[in-house]
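Handout, section B. The chain below has 214 residues.
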Amino acid sequence: MGTIVNGANGGFKGKAGSVIGSSWKGINYIKGLYKKRTKPASEAQLQQQAKFGLLMRFLLPIRKFINIGFGRKNMNKAVPGNVALQFNFAEGITGVYPDYVIDYSKIRISDGTLYGAGNVTVSYDQGDLTLNWDTAVNEDLENQLDDVLYVVGYHPEKDEFVTNPTRLTRADGTVTFPIPGHLQSGVLHIWYFMSDRKKLRVSKSSYLGELQLD
């Protein structure tokens, strides 16, 4: 039996007939009871499911970054992971069903209005990854020296991510850190983005390209 919330005109929680009432972040929802599918999924539905599955598998290991990068978008209606999925669905996948692949150059790990790190360069040498970026601040752009910079690398052959081991700020201007030995071959895709120190504002993530590691 459902329970009415906030009087006769409010939402309700629980089961009432063929629907279920619930709430999340102060928003009331009503949905129908699950019905067992009696006919096979259509080709279009299979394509959608394949795309979402591929994208979710890619984004899930970096949910810490996704929570920062999309944490302020539609925050009253959706969790960051779902926002990131929707944001990347149209552009982040290429290929023909069932052979879909991630288009790494189109993937966004964050989206916002904070000014990024300007001219960013990335290089690899003898097991070490080095990034350099601009440290200038501009009052009109509202960027600060203590803005935080995040680095995300993905090794598709090993299906593993790498990132800088220590906190980075705009003021640092450069970082060099080692790539684990078992990842020092093949290619590495690199992204970066920034946030203010309170993680209330973020920049758009930038794809820095594909590095050949051997």
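Note. The radius of gyration is 21 Å. Compare this with the example in section A.
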